[in-house]
Amino acid sequence: MYTAEQYEELKNLIRKHDYSYYVEDDPTISDLEYDKLFQDLINLEEKYPEIVDPDSPSQRVGIKPVSGFKTYSHKKQILSLSNIFSEEDLQDFFNRIEKRMLGIDDYSFFCEPKMDGAAVSLIYENGILIRGVTRGDGQTGEDVTSNIKTIKSIPQKLIHKKNSKIPEYLEVRGEIYISKKDFEILNKNAAEKEEKIFANPRNAASGSLRQLDPQITNKRPLSFVVHGLGESSNNTFSTLEEFFDLMKLFGLPTSNLNRSVNNISQCSEYYNEILKSRDEIPFDIDGVVYKINQIEYQDKLGEISRSPRWAIAHKFPAEEATTIIDQINFQVGRTGVLTPVARLKPVRVGGVTVSNCTLHNIDELERIDPREGDTVIIRRAGDVIPQIIKVVESKRKKETKSVEIPSKCPACGSLLIQENQSDWEILDAKNKRLKIFSSKIESENFLLEKNDDSLRLNEIKNKAAFIKCSSTFSCPEMIRGNLTHFVSRKAFDIEGLGQEILNTFIKKSYLKDPSDIFLLQNFRKELENLEGFGEKSVSNLIESINESRNVDLSRLIYALGIPEVGEATSRNLANEYRDINKLMHVDFYDLIKVDDLGPKVATNIINFFKNDYINDFLSRLLPHLRINQMELPNKKDMPLLSKQIVLTGKLTQFSRDEIKENLIRLGAKVTSSVSKNTDFIIAGENAGSKLKKANELGIKVLSEEDYLVLKDEPEKII
Ligand code: IVH
Fold first, then answer.
1. In this structure, which long-range contacts are made by residues 532-541, counting pairs with CB atoms below 8 Å and at least 24 apart in sequence?
2. What average pLDDT values come out for the chain (718 residues) when binned by 10 residues?
3. Is domain 553-628 annotated with CATH 1.10.150.20?
């Protein structure tokens, strides 16, 4: 049973969320939660059709435009899509269609990604773009023509090819969006200028499109992709597939992820495939859309209130969720840096349960200002660590206070020091910024290279503030962090030294730094007496420690935990120096010649080996080890030596890592971006911008099959 009051409340709640989403571009709940509320409303109205209020949010799409734009009435209403969330729902969708098709079975499905942006309609008269309108409430939108005209991928004039007659009147619909990469850059720049940070690419796209000043829109990296037809004076196609082919011929951007399929099991396959490659797709999608391919059958199926019967959106698991912060505290990492961590009420997001969320630094803490008890929107996309996107201010309780930055290390009570990282900009004679660097040396090198007196270097202070424990290497949390890193799989890989055991050994003072690990054998008897230990377990532990004494140079370098020296850099350093003593005395200019090693990391390495404490530690550690220097590779075995290769698109026969490893073994350098120095790209299915760039630069493009040849008989390709 429901009460009229509850119905009213539900409608009002949805209206409120509609307003934050569509007008303020500032949602206060996650999409999934919104969809659920909306579904509740639909269910209620379906159960009690007599109560349906013509003003109910279910009776329209979106919200009436309110900003300073002229309004425009769509010739044909822009419909919305119903959502489904499971295979079962998909089967129901199919059954409903079958029932209405009365035995007709020669239809197929057209599958598209569900773009997460802002819907617009573009009107072309005789091939000339004359108007661009937002979806608005589906009936009436905002005339944003001047803004639309700033978007590079939207042709102002349609291309006319031989067999493609351009209709006198053509309304195409599609989505304005911002790619993930462009979004990151946009927000980074906004943060630098202390401007508004957007919650996600969709809000950024929608907000950018609805700027009253087209100059602002012009600066935003907006893209467009077609997903539907409005009105046309001349339809020469009978299926969506033909429609999209035609739009492509006209020069309009269409998605290369679109595919026509024959039945619902192929729809499911499409869903799973796109879901799996979601992270590699360069823009946000929140699901896929299935549509009946034949226009004639679309018309036959028609629509119910706000959505067509011939199309449905199959949503992906949500990447955003709201939850509550229980507590905020500070964690001390192995380099001593304090990281604010929010302890959350556990919530499922991006397929896992999240209960902790770190904030990068103090600036981020100040910018987001999360407080205990706050409701927050968190996001976890792919393998990326969960992030707090924003606080839902309207749900903030009274009398809460911003988190206080500690003045002492929470682990050891030592004083804290603040480190500000600066950026460095290069200015020209007119004070225009030419380039920005994150290290001074890097920018000085740039100036040296340019050798131009009119250029100037300027420090941009306080980019990000970090607070660090001042007790260098004696803080127990730093000791624990260093030890954990030292014994980890990619470093010394010592089995039997898990977190708990490390904690016990630290507490009992058996371990003060990683060199002590190799002295544990002197305390056999004492260890055997510890709770949970016995002769056998101590024996096993000592054995695995002894095995680890035989260590590859690259693992040793990695295990030292030099800031920003990861696995790949360690391998490059080992290859270059082949001797830890050489690396310890290396000079800066030598270092920056090493593959993929910039001035910032070089500075870290130099500073690390300059430190007295480190030198003392190394003099205690090294005598315990037998270091395997790298073997000099035989040039004959490295036919791809110094070739630069980029992998892109979906590779089907081999995993990306597998291919990468093989190529590196053969001497190649596998890089992530295409430049004029790239020798080949290996492009899988649905390759996008990298493939395009490679073609523009005239770089040789190889298929996955070609890769097999390259691997076994490289001379055939090089
Ligand atoms: S077709 C008749 N196709 O989702 C169906 N819409 O809820 C009209 N959207 O307003 C839409 N990707 O902004 C369609 N491949 C796609 C889409 C898509 C994203 C958006 C669009 C629309 C909303 C419908």
1. 537/496, 540/495, 540/496, 541/496, 541/497
2. 84 84 73 84 85 77 63 92 92 94 92 96 94 92 93 88 82 96 90 82 92 90 95 91 94 95 96 91 94 96 89 90 94 91 90 86 87 93 81 90 92 88 83 79 78 86 77 86 94 91 92 95 92 91 95 95 88 89 90 78 90 94 90 71 86 80 80 85 85 90 89 83
3. yes
Report domain extents, the chain.
4-60, 83-315, 319-395, 416-469, 476-548, 553-628, 644-716
Which of 173, 175, 244, 314 to probe ligand 1 with, by most ligand atoms within 8 A of CB? Answer: 175
Q: Which residues line ligand 1 (CB under 6 A)?
A: 79-81, 112, 114-115, 119, 135, 175, 227-228, 289, 308, 311
**74, 80, 81, best to mutate for ligand 1 pocket (most atoms within 8 Å of CB):** 81
Nearest CA to ligand 1 atom 17: 114
Catalytic residue among 16, 76, 114, 157: 114
What is the number of alpha carbons within 13 Å of residue 427 lying toward its C-beta?
11
Measured in degrees and rounded to the nearest 5, phi and psi for residue 347 equal -145, 145
- Calculate how far, in angstroms, residue 525's C-alpha sits from the geometric centre of ligand 1: 70
Query: Catalytic: 114?
Result: yes
CA distances to 38, 194, 374, 389 from 394, rounded to whole Å, are 21, 22, 10, 15
What's the pTM?
Answer: 0.59
